[in-house]
Specification:
This protein has twelve helices and 18 strands. With 462 residues, it is of the alpha+beta class. Helix 3 crosses helix 12 and helix 10 crosses helix 12. The two termini are 30 Å apart.
């Protein structure tokens, strides 16, 4: 899990690619900020032009009721060749310039083999690795497989219109294999392919204890305290062993035991390196499981934000009428997001107390967990591509984040693979986000080889 291992040798990333990455990262395509909507549209146009420069005969921007997506298609010369659909996103997470120390979020900087800037790793660098892999792969007029792109502009805000895109453009997005390019590598020295991602359910829990904020000198000790009640509920999400207390939550979860997404021998997560890489003070979570199992193969429930009382005003003497918590639940097979949403509501109903009003909002933008079918020929082709680039055997790992993999698999009727160029040290969603140019280089090599391998062994055992 640590980058402190030898890196496979190879030529540097082409300067043209780093110039392209810097140009794109400089576009502040922050999807959660309505004032940045023109920048998200500009980012979509930039990518559309980049697809055309790469050689895509068809590339366009798809408008939605929200922010635009980008679609491209480059048909193979052989009409019977497999069709690969690559999914990712061009929008980026919000950034506070005051927290960045190396450079400003949208002023990309190349330093010590890393490109710094918001979106450099999540996920603009990953998308450009695909484009440069195509340029390396195509030696004639067309790739060996038909390559399609779906790059949405709302992933960082929950992909509110992804379902509409998949339904409205079902014919254009039909594929034999889908690849999600919004994930992380194991490290630069130990090649591993992600084969499973957790699902996610988000929720906003609001507690009210009064019609308006109160002066504590008048009511303290007798009035309902919304903030204290919210803290009680948040604490009740887990028992003393770190297990989530939603009713029926663990019923479909597999009993502890060997898991295909668990790290194999030689890839156990080093806790000290993980703490250093992530900047975390301590490793907690469900008792009785390794750090890798808690990250990849066990569900989790997190509090993403707590708010109470008016912002920007002194809190002394105030009893807030309302308090809010934003929750994130991550799921593993065989859990389903809709069932967990119902379990959240049942859990709240069991914990209500007189003297408070409660509200739980669970948006429909949720995702089921997904696992790539083991032994699928396309997975074998990816393994060969990654192994060729790294010059070492490939292992399979899980990923603790979520992706719309199950949604894409259902919509396309195709298996989903995962391959990205992110690293645990890339600081996604944090200050000083960066991408490692060696990760881009290895990703380009792996993807170019994968495109070569995908059509040549369709009869591999599955």
């Amino acid at each position: 899990m640590s980058p402190r291992v030898p890196r496979p040798p190879g030529p540097p990333v082409p300067a043209e690619m780093l110039d392209e990455l810097a140009e794109w990262v400089a576009i502040p395509s922050v999807s959660c900020d309505p004032e940045r909507a023109p920048d998200v549209a500009r980012s979509a146009r930039w990518l559309t032009d980049a697809l055309r420069r790469t050689g895509f005969p068809y590339a366009t921007t798809w408008e939605t009721r929200g922010l635009p997506a980008v679609h491209g298609c480059w048909p193979a010369a052989d009409p019977d060749a497999p069709v690969l659909l690559v999914y990712s996103h061009h929008d980026v997470h919000a950034a506070d310039p005051g927290e960045w120390t190396v450079t400003a979020p949208f002023r990309p900087l190349l330093l010590d083999g890393r490109c710094y800037g918001r979106g450099a790793s999540d996920a603009k660098g990953q998308i450009l690795a695909h484009l440069w892999a195509l340029r390396a792969h195509v030696t004639g007029a067309a790739p060996a497989v038909t390559v399609k792109y779906l790059i949405e502009g709302e992933e960082e805000t929950g992909s509110a219109h992804l379902a509409d895109l998949l339904a409205d453009h079902a014919g254009e997005l039909a594929a034999d294999v889908v690849m999600v390019s919004d994930t992380m590598l194991w490290s630069l020295g130990r090649p591993a392919v992600c084969t499973a991602v957790r699902g996610s359910v988000t929720a906003t829990l609001t507690v009210r204890g009064a019609h308006r904020d109160l002066h504590s000198g008048a009511v303290s000790g007798a009035a309902s305290n919304a903030a204290a009640e919210l803290c009680r509920l948040v604490a009740a999400l887990h028992d003393r062993r770190g297990r989530i207390t939603l009713p029926g939550f663990y019923d479909p979860v597999a009993a502890p035991g060997p898991d295909p997404a668990a790290p194999p021998d030689g890839l156990a997560v080093d806790e000290g390196a993980w703490l250093a890489d992530t900047g975390t003070f301590g490793a907690g979570g469900e008792a009785g499981f390794t750090l890798a199992e808690r990250l990849w193969t066990r569900p989790s429930a997190e509090v993403a934000r707590l708010t109470a009382g008016p912002a920007g005003r002194p809190a002394l003497g105030l009893l807030p009428a309302r308090a809010t918590a934003e929750l994130l639940v991550r799921l593993v097979p065989e859990q389903r997001a809709d069932q967990v949403a119902g379990q959240l509501r049942a859990w709240l109903a069991a914990h209500r107390r007189p003297g408070y009003h409660y509200r739980l909002d669970v948006p429909p933008t949720r995702s089921d967990p997904y696992r790539t079918p083991p032994g699928h020929p396309a997975l074998a082709a990816l393994d060969r591509g990654v192994g060729h680039a790294y010059g070492a055997p490939v292992r399979h790992i899980g990923n603790g984040g979520a992706a719309p993999a199950a949604q894409l698999a259902r919509a396309c009727g195709a298996p989903v693979l995962f391959f990205g160029t992110g690293l645990p040290t890339d600081r996604w969603h944090g200050p000083d986000e960066r991408t490692d140019t060696d990760a881009l280089r290895l990703g380009i090599g792996a993807l170019a080889r994968f495109l070569h391998e995908l059509p040549v062994r369709p009869d591999a055992p599955g």
